[in-house]
Amino acid sequence: MDSHGQDEQRVVWTVVDTGIGPLMLAATRQGLVNVVFHATDAISERVRERLTARLGAEPVEDPDAPLLVEAIRQVEAYLAGERRDFDLPLDWSLISGFNREVLRELASGVPYGTVVGYGDLAGRVGQPGGAQAVGAAMGANPLPVVVPCHRVVESDGGIGGFGGGLETKRRLLALEGVLPEPLF
Fold it and tell me: Which alpha helices (H) appear in 14-162, and where do they start and end?
């Protein structure tokens, strides 16, 4: 069989219920490619359409795909406070350029239980003064939770924005011991 055929671009997905709501996970042969918050039927359908357009293959629901099984195991362990780091192959093909550079630095350089300011992260990738661009990169993160954009905060102590919603960001930071647990 032609190794560059449709099979090469296989994209698998599933939705898993978690303590922070339903998460959609999608993977290619290269690795985990997308994590999506609030994965209602309508949202996961829109995401699948976008993945088809971007990756050239229609995603197939396959909760038993080995990479998804492992990703779910690691995400659930992280959310249970039993895991601090993700050890998963990542497919960065949904993001490029500056955004990819910033997210790779975030993934490798901002460990569990720590936070970094938008401006500080911009400086780390050689773009001092690029705080807003870093904010845009965080908003474009195709792999939230696994690539921890929740660890990027405002330098004045503000929590900053978050694609999963501020309540989810607070819960993730509390899980990592950065913020006190919300009282209600």
Answer: 41-55, 66-79, 97-109, 118-124, 131-139
Catalytic position from the list 25, 94, 103, 149? 149
> Helix, strand, or coil here: 26?
strand
Identify whether the C-beta of residue 117 lies closer than 8 Å to the C-beta of residue 154.
Answer: yes
Residues 6+ positions from 10 with CB-CB distance below 8 Å:
28, 29, 57, 60
Band (58; pLDDT cuts 50, 70, 90): very high
Q: Is 83 a catalytic residue?
A: no
Give the tens place of pLDDT for each residue, 13-49: 999 999 999 999 999 999 999 999 999 999 999 999 9
In the predicted structure, residue 102 carries a pLDDT above the cut 70: yes
Q: pTM to 2 decimals?
A: 0.91
pLDDT in tens, 116-141: 999 999 999 999 999 999 999 999 99
What's the burial of 87, exposed, middle or buried (CB within 10 Å: 0-12/13-18/19+)? exposed
Q: How does 36-60 read in b/e, with b if 16+ C-beta sit within 10 Å?
A: bbbbeeeebeebbeebeeebebebe
Name the 3-class secondary structure at 29.
coil
Checking DSSP bridges between strand 12-18 and strand 21-27, what pairing results, if any?
A: antiparallel
